[in-house]
Specification:
Helix content of chain A: 10-25%
Number of helices of chain A: 2
Radius of gyration of chain B: 19 Å
Largest sheet of chain B: 9 strands, mixed
Structural class of chain A: alpha+beta
CATH class of chain A: Mainly Beta
Number of helices of chain B: 13
CATH class of chain B: Alpha Beta
Strand content of chain A: 25-35%
Number of domains of chain A: 1
CATH architecture of chain A: Roll
Structural class of chain B: alpha/beta
Order of helices and strands of chain B: HEHHEHEHEHHEHEHHEEEHHH
Shape of chain B: globular
Shape of chain A: elongated
Largest sheet of chain A: 5 strands, antiparallel
Number of strands of chain A: 5
Helix content of chain B: 40-55%
Strand content of chain B: 5-15%
Strand order of the largest sheet of chain B: 6-5-4-3-2-1-7-8-9
Order of helices and strands of chain A: HEEEEEH
CATH architecture of chain B: Alpha-Beta Barrel
Oligomer: heterodimer
C-alpha cells in the first residue's frame, strides 16, 4: 500500500511485510474509525487520535465509537488494527478542490497564473 | 495598523516579561479549538474530517479555561470548527474577557446575527469577531462551497459593528488568487468599517496533500508583493507589518511553532496549529518533549518547507520587534507610515 492511498478497508497482518509500528502510524494518520484487535482477541472500535513511541511503554490513545475516552492501549497489547471505518478525508483532497476551483475560475474568466 | 494601543501594550509587556525572565520558548496566541463541528464544508479545509463521534464532542468551558491558564498567552484565538456552534460560547468568551485575555473569535458569521440578537455576547475591548472572508462575493462563496455566505457575512459584520463590537476579517489566499480583486476586497472591507484585516497564505493540510499546487514561497512572495505593493493608507491590517514584509519576501524569518500552540479535544497538538504529529497531555509536556528542531524551514522538514502561515511566522515577527532596536524601529516606522 502506498503512502498516499487511503487504507480504508485494509486488514493488515502484522509480521507479513508490515510492522505493528507501521500500522499504528497509518491508524494515527487515518481520519476514520478503526478496529483495534487486542492480543487477547477482544476488539475495540474507535478513532486513534494519538500515539507515543518515545516513552517506556509505547501506547495509542482512542476515543471509542461512542466517543468515550481517551482510552490508552499499550503497543504490546495490540495484535493488529483493521481499517474498518469510512475515511472521512477521502475525496476531499487539495487536488480535487483545486480542480474544482480552476474549473470555476475558467467559468468566471479569471486568468490562472502561469504554471497553475 | 489597527491593533488598539491597550492590546499592543498587553502583548509588548508580556513579551518583555518573558525575555527578562530568560524564556526562549513562550506562547503569544493560544489557538483554542473547543470543537471540530462546522456548518460549512469547505473543500480545501483539513480541519473537520473526523468520524461522527469526534465531531459530536467538545471541550467543557472548564477544560478551555484550564488550557488558557496553563498556557498563559495574552491572546486567545477561538477557531474550530465553527465556534458559534459551541453551546457555551457565551460563557467561555465572558470568562476569557474577565481574565483580560484578548479574544479573537474566528467565525464564518453564519450564526453571528442570531447570536448577537440573542444577547450571547457583550461588546468589550477584549473581544473581536474575526470573520472568515476569503475575498469578494464570487471568490468567497466559491471558497466556502456555498452561495450566499458572503452576503450573510457582510450583514453580520454590519450588525456586529452597529452593536459596538470589534470586528476584523481573516483571509486565506491560495494559488490563483487575483491581486487586483484582492485589493478591491480590502477596499470593500474598509468600506464596511472593520477594524482591521488579517491575511495569510493557505497551508496544504496533510489531509489535502498536493505539493504540485502548493503556493510555494517564491510564488507566495510574488503574489503578496503584487497585492501589497503601494498599500493604500486606508487599509488596516490587524497583524505585524514585519509579517506582511515577510509575505512579500522583503524580510526572512524562521518559524516559531510554539508561538501559537493549539489545544483541542485531543490535547496539546504537536508541533503547531497546522501539523498533527501527536498530542501532549499538558502545555509543559508540549514545550519540553516536542522535538522542535524537526520543524521550521531550516530543519529541512518538507512539511515546513513552503509554509508561510501566520501561526508560525507572526510570533517570529512580534518577537523580532522586541529583540532589537532595529526590529522595534522597523515596526514603528511601518506602523506610522503605513509603508511596507
Amino acid at each position: 500500500m502506498s503512502d498516499t492511498e487511503s487504507p480504508e478497508g485494509w486488514v493488515p497482518a502484522i509480521g507479513h511485510g508490515v510492522t505493528l509500528e507501521e500500522v499504528v502510524e497509518r491508524a494515527f494518520d487515518y481520519r476514520g474509525n478503526v478496529t483495534v484487535v487486542k492480543a487477547d482477541g477482544t476488539r475495540l472500535e474507535g478513532y486513534v487520535f494519538n500515539r507515543n513511541r518515545d516513552v517506556e511503554v509505547p501506547f495509542i490513545q482512542v476515543f471509542d465509537r461512542a466517543g468515550a475516552g481517551p482510552l490508552d492501549i499499550p503497543y504490546a497489547d495490540i495484535r493488529t488494527i483493521l481499517f474498518t471505518g469510512k475515511d472521512t478525508a477521502a475525496g476531499n483532497s487539495y487536488a480535487a478542490w483545486l480542480r474544482a476551483k480552476e474549473a470555476s475560475q475558467q467559468r468566471l474568466g479569471t486568468p490562472l497564473p502561469p504554471g497553475a | 495598523m489597527s491593533v488598539p494601543l491597550s492590546q499592543m501594550w498587553a502583548v509588548a509587556s508580556y513579551v518583555i516579561r518573558q525575555r527578562l525572565a530568560g524564556r526562549t520558548r513562550y506562547p503569544l496566541v493560544l489557538m483554542l479549538e473547543p470543537l471540530f463541528r462546522c456548518n460549512l464544508a469547505c473543500a480545501g479545509c483539513g480541519k473537520i474530517q473526523y468520524p461522527a463521534q469526534i465531531l459530536k464532542k467538545h471541550l467543557t468551558v472548564e477544560q478551555c479555561l484550564g488550557a488558557v491558564d496553563e498556557c498563559g498567552a495574552p491572546v486567545v484565538s477561538i477557531p474550530g470548527g465553527e465556534p458559534l456552534m459551541y453551546p457555551e460560547i457565551g460563557r467561555l468568551v465572558s470568562e476569557l474577557v474577565a481574565r483580560k485575555k484578548y479574544v479573537y473569535l474566528c467565525t464564518n458569521a453564519l450564526l453571528l446575527k442570531e447570536r448577537l440578537t440573542a444577547g450571547v455576547f457583550e461588546p468589550s475591548k477584549y473581544l473581536s469577531f474575526s470573520i472568515h472572508m476569503d475575498g469578494l462575493r464570487a471568490e468567497h462563496d466559491e471558497a466556502v462551497c456555498r452561495e450566499g455566505v458572503y452576503d450573510d457575512a457582510v450583514e453580520a459584520i454590519r450588525e456586529a459593528l452597529r452593536r459596538g463590537f470589534r470586528v476584523t476579517t481573516n483571509t486565506t489566499l491560495f494559488e490563483g488568487a487575483n491581486p487586483l480583486r484582492t485589493r478591491e476586497f480590502f477596499d470593500a472591507m474598509m468600506d464596511l468599517g472593520v477594524e482591521g484585516m488579517m491575511i495569510s497564505p493557505g497551508y496544504s493540510y496533510a489531509k489535502a496533500p498536493d505539493q504540485e499546487h502548493f503556493l510555494r514561497r517564491q510564488r507566495a512572495n510574488e503574489l503578496f508583493s503584487r497585492i501589497l505593493a503601494d498599500p493604500k493608507r486606508r487599509w488596516k491590517f490587524n497583524q505585524s507589518p514585519l509579517f506582511l514584509q515577510f509575505l512579500m519576501g522583503t524580510r526572512d524569518f524562521e518559524c516559531t511553532p510554539w508561538g501559537n500552540p493549539t489545544y483541542n479535544i485531543f490535547g496539546w497538538q504537536r508541533p503547531c496549529y497546522l501539523l498533527q504529529e501527536g498530542y501532549a497531555a499538558t502545555f509543559k509536556e508540549l514545550l519540553e518533549t516536542t522535538r522542535w528542531e524537526r520543524y521550521g524551514k531550516k530543519s529541512g522538514n518538507e512539511k515546513c518547507r513552503d509554509c508561510m502561515v501566520h501561526c508560525g511566522y507572526e510570533p517570529t515577527a512580534v518577537n523580532h520587534t522586541f529583540a532589537s532596536w532595529r526590529g522595534f524601529r522597523d515596526t514603528v516606522t511601518a506602523t506610522v507610515t503605513g509603508r511596507l
